Amino acid sequence: MNINKIQTKSVITKSNLPDADFVINPYIGCTHSCIYCYARFMKRFTGHQEKWGQFLDIKLNSSETIPKNSKKIKNKSVFISSVTDPYLHLEKKYKITRKILKKILPLEPNLSIQTKSSLIVRDIDILKEFANCRVGMTITTLNDAIRKQVEPNTAPIEQRLAALKKLKQSGISTYIFIGPILPFITDWKKIVENTKEIADSYMFENLNMHGTISHDIYTWIKRDHDHLLDKYASLSKNKAAFWNDMEIEINEFCTNQNIDFKLYFDHKKQRKR
After folding, report:
1. pLDDT digits (tens, 9 = 90+) for 124-170
2. What per-residue confidence (pLDDT) applies to 267?
3. How far is it, in rounded angstroms, from Cα 95 to Cα 74?
4. Which residues are paired to 133 by β-bridges?
5. Deepest of 49, 175, 230, 245, by most Cβ within 10 A of its Cβ?
6. Residue 269: predicted pLDDT
7. How big is the CA angle at 55 (ends 19 and 13), to the nearest 5 degrees?
8. Are 167 and 120 in contact (CB under 8 A)?
């Protein structure tokens, strides 16, 4: 793992995401090494030659770039983070995300954070002070053996769910991001049914198979789930129909169960109940 300490001009950037006005990314790169990660496109802008998941730039001065008095993000939706995880293992040492939270608290944003780490419970004391704050935990599978295959450097599923439970018990709004849905592997219904008491809402995202992601996914399927090779080959020819059918199924299931949810099967548009 190539770790670098860098300085940044600004840590708050405008967002193209459907639910965020601004995004904050305390790090460049990610140490989770998820085989399905869409954020690998960032290498086009960072100049890194290492494989995505094998480098991390720590923005040491992130909090210092945030003005003490500013109306820029007041009542605006701010998402931490979009192309990294704010609670990577090095966050324990450098506390970049914690410093950012302290700095933006007086600026009164509508804060949203998403992570795959139980480390977020460390910052419950600050998160509770935000007037509008919600925290999401990414859950791709409840099977920790599969989690190790696709998200090798992430926190175990049990730890994530325990963290989300603690957040909810602390009065913080919670959601579970079921994404990406891994065809024939992610049991999204089971995830919902097993987490209703700790999640206020759910988000669903389909698997992005663009570029090098496709190669990594097929390599994984061939190595660990070769019985699914034919299904994945068929899926590549019928993607639109497959995801459209699943979208209908999720809509019907969540509506019938009175579950608050959003679908992100196409980043260009947002579908919701």
Report:
1. 999 999 999 999 999 999 999 999 999 999 999 999 999 999 999 99
2. 54
3. 24
4. 111
5. 175
6. 52
7. 30
8. yes
Contact predicate 71/106, CB 8 Å: no
Q: Count the neighbouring beta carbons within 10 Å of the beta carbon of residue 19.
A: 14
Flag whether pLDDT at 205 surpasses 60: yes
Q: Which residue has the tokens 């950012």?
A: 100
Could you tell me the pLDDT band of residue 271, with boundaries at 50, 70 and 90? Answer: very low
Place of tokens 């068929």: 234
Sheet containing strand 2-6, edge to edge, reads: 2-6, 55-59, 27-29
Q: Which domain holds residue 37?
A: 2-272
Spatial neighbors of 149 by CB under 8 A, at least 6 apart, are: 35, 220, 224
The total number of structural domains that make up the chain: 1
- Residue 116 is predicted with a pLDDT of 98
Q: How many CA atoms lie within 13 A of 62 on its CB side?
A: 28
| 181, two tokens | 């849905």
